Amino acid sequence: MWKQFLSKLPRKSSKSDCASDSAHNHPGSNASSSGNSIQRTNSGNAGPGRSTSVKRMSSAVFPSSVVAGIEPLLSFKDVSNTEKQNLFISKLNLCSVVFDFSDPNKNSTEKDMKRQALLDLIDFVNSGTSRFTEPMISASCKMFAINLFRGFPPNYRSNSSCGGETEEEEPRFDPAWSHLQLVYELLLKFIASSSLDAKMGKKFMDHSFILRLLELFDSEDPRERDCLKTILHRIYGKFMVHRPFIRKAVSNIFYRFVFETDRHNGVAELLEVFGSVISGFALPLKEEHKIFLWRALIPLHKPKSVGVYLQQLTYCVTQFIEKEPKLASSVIRGLLKYWPVTNGQKEVMFLSELEEVLEATSVVEFQKCMAPLFRRIGFCVNSSHFQVAERALFLWNNDHVMSLVAQNRQAIMPLIFPALEKNSQSHWNQAVLNLTMNVRKMLSEMDEELFLACQRKFEEDEENRVAVEEKRKKAWERLEIAAAFQPMTGNTAVLVRPVMAPAIAATLT
Amino acid sequence: MAMIDEPLYPIAILIDELKNEDIQLRLNSIRRLSTIARALGEERTRKELIPFLSENNDDDDEVLLAMAEELGVFIPYVGGVEYANVLLPPLETLCTVEETFVRDKAVESLCRIGAQMKKNDLVDWFIPLVKRLAACEWFTGRVSSCGLFHIAYPSAPDQLKVELRSIYGQLCQDDMPTVRRAAASNLGKFAATVEQSYLKTEIMPIFDDLTQDDQDSVRLLAVESCAALGKLLAPLDCVAHILPVIVNFSRVLLDKSWRVRYMVANQLYELCEAVGPEPTRADLVPAYVRLLRDNEAEVRIAAAGKVTKFCRILNPQLPIQHILPCLKELSSDSSQHVRSALASVIMGMAPILGKDATIEQLLPIFLSLLKDEFPDVRLNIISKLDQINQVIGIDLLSQSLLPAIMELAEDRHWRVRLAIIEYIPLLASQLGVGFFDEKLGALCMQWLEDKVFSIRDAAANNLKHLAEEFGPEWAMQHIIPQVPDKISNPHYLYRMTILHAISLLAHVMGIDITCQKLLPVVIASSKDRVPNIKFNVAKVLQSLVPILDQSVVENMIRPCLVELSEDPDVDVRYFANQALQACDQVMVSS
Fold it and tell me: What residue spans carry the Polar residues bias annotation (chain A) (predicted)?
């Protein structure tokens, strides 16, 4: 059918067409189609050929009963109100042809035509006419599906002979963006339009539609993910019935990312949408939402790419704690579970998130997790990565944290003192040393008696350390010997035992 | 020792250690679980240790992983196979934790234990466990259960078998894609244990559903199991049930996901045997040709990589007619990775096609790949030279070969240079001494002075391999004369390379040449001004001690080492003393 349309176009570049035609059209018109002057002259005699061509294509897309039967290149202005609906569908059908953008020069005229049709559709939806009818919604969803739901190309492999050391990945831009962008814009306008009745729309924007839309979040193109973010937000807002499904489907994406693939491009965007979803949760929180926090959000701290989306993740997590302060201790325990041990950069990020969470933590919640927490902070203070040590020591600059520590100094000081002491004896970095001294001073001013007690305990422990080590070694040695004495089913050790026993006994005495 | 009288509480030691805040200590104690079990004896292990472990599984994932692994080999410590069931509860809990690695390991251990358990015990203990996991509320348990059915099923009585099959069917329709993926990837294993009659009636419908799943990740795994399923079915059933699915997947229009087609490309050759020759010719060859011409490079890579395996199954006419034209296209594919995949397998086509077709049709492809701008492509061709040599002899290629090798030998990426060095012994054996001396000999010496250590290291090893290939006399003529020149290189790192080469060559060249030609060079180097050279001399001498006559050791090596053992540098003294000890040991043992 494209050939038929093309035959009606003058052999000029379509851009210049637009310019010359706009003068011919109503002034200020923004719906000018590159071919509409020709359309008018042709609409009479090109009838039979045209209608068959439209029919042929339409029937492939949806049932022939709703065939539009109208020239898609017409402008909305040039048809009667009753015809507009048909023209809408006709233009959608035109846009349901997907072009190959790997070669920019291929089908450039057709591409421009589709572009123009998309712009027309956007204007039409924007103008907010009467309600969309079922055929209109159906045709729209078909068009969105055909254009948007595609498999992404594989990631470019890093050139193996270069050693593959290029860690930084440049974002990839989809070559078909000039069309995709408009389709996304239309989808957004379409969903947001008051002409779209949610009850009727949900029949076509169904679970499978949403699922495939969510799959697109893995796109490498940040522009596409940005569009999707806004659209998902709108869908979540408009289609109340789909909300539980969307939450479930997104959880599944997170599970797959965390527990299976470790790769997804759109986690930050999905979390951003969820940030506002969470802030909209009603109180008291449903059990389902808490499970989402524990089983999806907290494990999201594990993947190595956490830095890409940590900001959004922290926002979601703190939203939860603001809604329900009693969640704080379990969140902190979760952070401790996924605490990075070999990645300094990640550790610094975790410390920042921790501080934000602590800000919103009450004393009662704090007490539930302070022991393991400060043991971990102690390790961070001793980190040989100076940024980690610094960031950990900065926690004491936070008034809220400081007051939590002061109220629970009996428990915390014994945990943190050895770390400070070790730093002051042997940390290589001057800035860390200074900070350590400051914190030491703060603690000793807080409760000098306790401070001195900790110091004594530390010195004692240091003295005993070798002995404890020795004792452990002995205990295991004795265990090994005891084990050698025991018979074991199906093991030859049983046979050797009588011979070995006296020998070992001799060495022991 | 007074401590021997203290009562020993192995469990207490474990509990103590597991409470320690240092994860390394906790890990160590879990790693020594078997020691604790042996000390406890079988009965107390069953009654105290295992229950304790079942309750204490709130540790770091790393500790849990170690526990899951240890328990897999724990049967001897609980009293043998009769008591194996006591090991199931702790592993069952580990099957439900969040961390994938721990779960997988727990499943692996359960399979290992289940494979040894008696039939009755499986029915009493193992199968109920599988059912519990499959009914877990949280997906982790259900995922784990999928990997256990193939152990449970064969021992089940008929009634239970019905139930197990239906549970597996439910898992394949689980609400969570993660579970469906696990079910899909274990389908082949499970199907292998299911009776023929149920394969068609129950397993194939499951397979069909999975291949139509709305998640491409699930379809992908279903496709992966098609080869395994195909081999289980009779050829006719395979043609009826699996072939259409696969052939459909090979079409771009029907599955937009290139990953699925990629998987089909990887699996297709395995189906050929399962369906028999006629369906292969009628359906699989066209499907395969489609994949070789797929739009997506990744799919072409997979298809090209399997071309030899695929063609080996066919009657030789088919590849010549249908596949060869595709290969010609692929050899000038726009993706270097496609060409590289092709280059790595295309040599294998020569024996399949026979001499005439190879010379006529394949040779031009070889030659064009050998001139490819991308080094990996050329390397892949060179690495399989022996295969073509068997069919047509290397003469036809040698003219194009040499420039390719020369270029690779000087490639700016050291990994490429390394790869070509590693193929030199192969080339030497294929090309023969004459050709080698003329063209490549100089290169081999030149690499000893490369800027990159790995290259120099490989070059030294290469000399050893060449000496083995061509014999000591050849080495005397071509390698040894260049040594004095090289050892006087002003840069100590290059001198070190030569020392390394000498220590390797000495083991190949035999005592006489070593004593006359190599040893003096080493001894002379002990006077080097760089300590690193000196202690390497000590190391080389130490390695020579066992292969030389004792008189040589005493007269030449020992004095030199004694001198080095008084060197001002601590490392030189250390290694010299080590070597002297080695001399002493040889003395004692002889």
Answer: 27-54
The predicted model scores a pTM of 0.74
Cβ-contact B171, B131 below 8 angstroms:
no
What residues have CB less than 8 Å from B152, skipping those under 6 apart? Answer: B114, B122, B126, B127, B130, B164
Residue A405's identity, in one-letter code, is: V
Q: Which of A293, A281, A279 is nearest to A331 (CA)?
A: A293
| Alpha-carbon separation of residue A239 from A201, A246, A248 (angstroms) | 8, 10, 15
Tell me the nearest-neighbour CA distance from A155 into chain B, angstroms. Answer: 10
> Which residues of B are less than 8 Å from A255 in CB distance?
139, 176, 178
> Collapsing DSSP states into helix, strand and coil, what is residue A43?
coil
Return the pLDDT at A462: 87
Burial category of B108 from C-beta neighbours within 10 Å (exposed 0-12, middle 13-18, buried 19 and up): middle
A161 contacts chain B (CB < 8 A): yes
d(CA B544, CA B548): 6
Cβ distance B36 to A479 less than 8 Å, yes or no, reads yes
Per-residue b/e over B196-233, b at no fewer than 16 CB within 10 Å?
A: eeebeebbbebbebbbebebbbbbbbbbbbbbbbbebb
CB within 8 Å of chain B, chain A residues 78-97: none
Contact B466, B475 (CB under 8 A): yes
- Looking at chain A, the whole-number percentage of residues with pLDDT higher than 70 is 78
Interface of A with B in 248-307 (CB under 8 A): 252, 255-256, 259-260, 295, 299
Q: Which two tokens stand for residue A261?
A: 């693939």
Using DSSP, state whether A305 is helix, strand or coil: coil
In B38-56, which positions are buried (b, 16+ CB within 10 angstroms) versus exposed (e)? bbbbbebbbebbbeebbee
For B534, phi then psi, to 5°, come to -65, -45
Contact residues, chain B, for A478 at CB < 8 Å: 3-4, 8
Taking only the tens place, the pLDDT of each residue in B509-530 is 888 888 888 888 899 999 888 9
> Does any CB of chain B come closer than 8 Å to the CB of residue A211?
yes
Interface ipTM > 0.85:
no
Confidence of residue B344 (pLDDT cuts 50, 70, 90): confident
B17 with B59: CB under 8 angstroms?
Answer: no
Do B256 and A149 make contact, defined as CB atoms within 8 angstroms? yes
CA atoms within 13 Å, Cβ hemisphere of B240 = 8
B345-399 residue pLDDT tens: 888 888 888 778 888 888 888 888 888 888 888 888 877 777 777 776 667 667 7
| Rounded Cα gap, residues A373 and A327, in angstroms | 15
Confirm if A413 and A447 have CB atoms less than 8 A apart.
yes
Chain B residues touching residue A260 (CB < 8 angstroms): 100, 178, 181
CA distance B249 to chain A (A): 14
Q: What are phi and psi of A173, to 5 degrees?
A: -105, 130
Stretch B573-586: mean pLDDT: 89
Give the pLDDT confidence score for residue A390 in this predicted structure.
Answer: 94
Least confident range of A430-434, B417-421, B502-506: B417-421
Helices and strands of chain A, counted as H and E runs: 24, 0
